[in-house]
## 1
Amino acid sequence: MIDQSIDQLIARVKEMQTKFIIVTGGVCSSIGKGVLTSSIGVLLKSSGYKLSVIKCDPYLNVDPGTMSPLEHGEVFVTNDGAETDLDLGHYERMLGIHLAQDSSISSGQIFQEVLEGERKGKYLGKCIQLVPHAANTVKQRLLEFALKHEVEYVLVEIGGTVGDMEGDLFLEAIRQLRMELGRQVMLAHLSYVPHLEWTGEVKTKPTQHSVMELKKAGLVPDCLFLRTEQPIPEKSVEKVALTCGVGRDFIFQVLTFEALAKLFVDLNEQNLCARIQQHFNHEEIKKADLSFWQTYISLIEQSSKELNIGLIAKYVGANDPYISIIEALKTAGFYQQRRVKVTVIDAELLEPGQEEHDQAWQQLKELDAILVPGGFDKRGVEGKVLAATWARENNVPFFGICLGMQVMLIEAARSLVGLEGANSTEIDPKTKHAVISLLDEQRGVTRKGASMRRGAYPCTMQPATKAQAAYGKPVIYERHRHRYEVNNAYRKSYEDAGLVFSGVYRDKELVEIAEFPDHRFMLGVQFHPEFCSTPRSPHPLFSAFVKAAVERKQQ
Ligand code: GLN
């Protein structure tokens, strides 16, 4: 039964002529599959094609929502509240499109769907197997996505590294799709080409082996992308073409650029966009218009003055947990000709009794502005509260995001409202003054991932506030991912102490934005503005925050 419906889907996709570009990665992880997928998207979109993107993650988690950010990086939240891989953030930022749950597929979701189907008797007594049942479920998702979104191109990034057994299910589904759709599918493989300093050579052997792994899975790449630190000599590229069986014209170099936009320009100069269209037999080969990205590159190049902004964080040592915030800060900086240097300070070290306490405080005091990002659990929260006190007392620009806003309000409750020991019940369930707490309706929900307010909600702005001035709109929509809320029982006391609640979710009367009118910029938001900042439109609150930091530095 299920096979028949796959056949029907295939027939419809053939009729629609939707083109799939599948991006796999080889040799090792972290070589930039997400960045490459975005770059291909930028070139096609700038040539006028309509497209969307899917990320397939081979892990068994249903979504990354419950994974540690240190292991998996940031959890990117879409408008519909899906908790997804951070690559979706790259796609949204670079392509200026909004994605949803159906752009994020994990092996966990596929197995969950197959097993739920089995329990419901969907497979009519059949023995359920990876092939055809699980592979068909993957194919079905990809095909339905193409039909639903009615785009010309669907880019599919396969997470992980070719050769890992985790990814086999996706590769098998792709192999079948390739058989069924022929040249409507293009296989792009990104591989790493190391440069050996001690011999001064680049080595293509890992790439050859990685392509062999693909071939074992029944896939021959149509184009190869060689990730490299320095330009690869033509001789080596030709060797790759010969040994891997890929046309020379379909091999591209992916160099490391400080500004990602330069990669778009470079790939375009290597003729990537034309080659893709050639593969798909387009009659007219369109040219990519990269003028916006050229302007953006000049903006970056003009940004010479540095701004030192601190992230008072729980996860130190990797930028991935805060990637959207860092990108939003940098973008806001470029539009004000500033190069934002992000200093990540371990919040815990700001607490008394810590070994590197003094160095951490020294770093904090040198900052031009302070940002406390979102987070869960109590580790480091007291350090964040201390950072908020410092910012408030010294008129240092402060931006609190989600947990960061809660921290700002805990600090204000203790220092200004006089509520000793005030806290969030997430941090101290027995606090006498639960200024941040669960809503009554949330208590008793125990299933992880099910009890959060997630996705876009409307927020009504209070006129004549810093937040309203930044947005310039009466109602805004922002994305959420949190459980706890400002306790309305304390709103009056806060207002008496000088705080202003400048944005509220009217349906449930929940605080969305809080600010101190007399401070240079001390503002907290319950939502995650970082997910909606793009190079084309920097987020208004990030811009206002960076502007306050620039002004302070100039004085
Ligand atoms: N832990 C807090 C809550 O659940 C904040 C969450 C966040 O910062 N994303 O409300």
## 2
Amino acid sequence: MAVSDHVDLATFIEGVRRRNPGQPEFAQAVQEVAEDIFDFIQDKEQYHKYQILRRIAEPDRVISFRVCWEDDKGNVRVQRGWRVQNNNAIGPYKGGIRFHPSVTESVLKFLAFEQTFKNALTGLPMGGGKGGANFNPKGKSDNEVMRFCQSFMNELYRHIGADVDVPAGDIGVGGREIGYMFGQYKRLTNEWTGVLTGKGLEYGGSLIRTEATGYGAVYFLRNMLATQKDGIDGKTVVISGSGNVATHAAEKINQLGGKVLTLSDSEGFIYDPAGISEEKVNWVKDLKNKRRGRISEYTKEFPGSEFHSGKTPWGVPAQLALPSATQNELTGDDARTMVANGCIGVSEGANMPTTLEGVHVFKDAQILFAPGKAANAGGVSVSGLEMSQNSARISWKEAELQRLLEDIMAGIHASCVEYGGRPGSKVTDYVRGANIAGFKKVADAMLAFGVV
Ligand code: NDP
Ligand code: 2IT
């Protein structure tokens, strides 16, 4: 084996950190993948020779642009927008758009990197990308959000297309924002194509796209539990977040007989010992989507529940957990507390919600732990199905889409089991399985292209 230009894992990670100064989230995501891939490729010369991991960890391009808009008082506001096109080896770039004040180039690069593996796992032809802006939609009027979305699209439209790059929603970007952005794209190009997913059902959206991420994360949890001849019925569940992913995860847990104890937002979490039933989940959806309120308001509506300001829900004992808010919201200490409290399964609805230390705690404890790139892939999967429907100019029925979503999640689970076996371990290492299965597909496509 020609090892002259091989580096070890530590040197590789050091190089990533050096080339990407001030981008800790990106380095963290690369490290989590590299820990498994270095082991997998050690005897596979082609992947070394063609520097495949190094190339996947260098985005094809990062587009950064100014977004100017006018608020309702007539003040000119300036934000920064990005689109990170990470890798299009197996299909057009695909991934969400995030509007949140915490958005930086590092955050979007980590998300686009993760998306590349996630999209490969779905089995659909989609590359990896992500975009967003450091815009805070909270407290903004509909007109302000519309003006911001239009201004954002005034630049983004040059870089995307139905066969080029297909954005969708993420934190702070839901049906309202997709509508404004799609309208502006159509106006600028005079073209109706499936350039965005997560569209409204009236204009080319797909049934169950809204539910798909949360439902998919619960299906993945169910698949993991089935390997231990166990299920969700009768289990207690802690969930973080109260947005699209969290509320639909809670909905599906209720449907499968589980009891949801918590939800959260950036101000704290609510704990309802009686359980957050489907009716209560519907109230939260309305609170977040229509009234754009805060989760603390839950305690006024549902007596017996508690609000814990400034805290995350991981201290509440439960058998299952679905972290579904944001990156690095579950630390090593949280993971230790959860394991000590008898947690047996974690399915990441969010992207990289668990810190690297937390991931190692779950792995070492040999509990069922599904990383976001596997567990939350249901959303982008139905986005891929939305693209297919738009191209074919048809709309599939709900039952068919439900079946496809469950099939895709089962397929991802099977891929993780295939590549995630660990000698001496009683459970699959889903992190390793997802990393290797996702990598292998993208890597083999890249090998076919030579050095490009
Ligand atoms: P939403 O905007 O619908 O909801 C986000 C939720 O997370 C809100 O409750 C929000 O609280 C909370 N949150 C956001 N940022 C922070 C923060 N910095 N600290 C604490 N809480 C925070 O987004 P989604 O539900 O769509 O996304 C949630 C996660 O799921 C993200 O990691 C996203 O990348 C991931 N994901 C989303 C998919 C989708 O289809 N939408 C697909 C796959 C993954 P607040 O209201 O206070 O901001
Ligand atoms: O993180 C994700 O997978 C998403 N935000 C959804 C991406 C998509 O293109 O549907």
